[in-house]
Write a structure and sequence with these properties.
Length: 215
């Protein structure tokens, strides 16, 4: 189960953000809540032991920002640039990411739960020890990404793009649905269930040039 705000070891030290968020800002033990922020400029900012609740980021850029030991709940990111960001020991719960650029980002020990992803770019990203729990991912692009120990329990994957991705301990067995739009040959290093193998068999056949004709 995801933690609640009061479960965080640093919960009693959290303080509301004072003033506007600034690029290259260094934020420790802050809480940002109930805010609708347009065209944010937060490049190279650093957040540690902090919480975000009920926030909407519309467009803007947080490129090269770092998020360490953060708890994020009910946050909406729409068209926001998160390329080359760093995430470590983070929980993102019940969030929405639509048209977000996470290209070149580094995610380590990150848990997404109940989140909805729509056309999110993970190209060239490095994910290690990342879980997507009860999420929906529509057209996620993991092209050229490195994915190590990534799991998808209860998650629906639609239109997955994996071209030239490098997988290790990439476990799809507990996903509730897997649809691959491109890069099925990149599944080397993945673990799938028998039923998923049957579902993906036509895609595997097409990838190696097999024509299947009944009758």
């Amino acid at each position: 189960m995801p933690r609640e705000l009061e479960d965080l070891p640093y919960a009693r030290y959290l303080k509301a953000v004072e003033g506007p968020l600034e690029p290259e800002g260094d934020y420790e033990c802050v809480r940002l809540s109930d805010a609708d922020i347009d065209d944010v400029d937060l490049g190279h900012a650093r957040f540690s032991e902090s919480a975000f609740t009920s926030v909407a980021f519309n467009r803007g850029s947080m490129r090269y920002s770092r998020f360490s030991d953060v708890w994020v709940r009910n946050v909406r990111w729409v068209g926001t640039e998160l390329a080359d960001t760093s995430w470590q020991d983070a929980e993102l719960i019940d969030g929405v990411l639509a048209g977000v650029d996470l290209g070149g980002s580094h995610l380590r020990r990150v848990r997404f739960e109940g989140c909805k992803f729509d056309s999110v770019n993970f190209r060239r990203a490095k994910l290690r020890d990342v879980s997507f729990v009860d999420c929906v991912l529509r057209h996620p692009d993991f092209g050229d990404a490195e994915l190590t120990n990534v799991t998808f329990p209860g998650t629906m994957l639609q239109g997955l793009l994996l071209s030239r991705a490098r997988l290790k301990k990439f476990d799809l067995r507990d996903a509730v649905g897997v649809g691959i739009a491109d890069g099925i040959d990149a599944l080397r290093g993945a673990t799938i269930s028998h039923s998923q193998l049957l579902d993906l068999a036509p895609d595997f056949a097409r990838a190696i040039g097999i024509v299947v004709v009944d009758g």
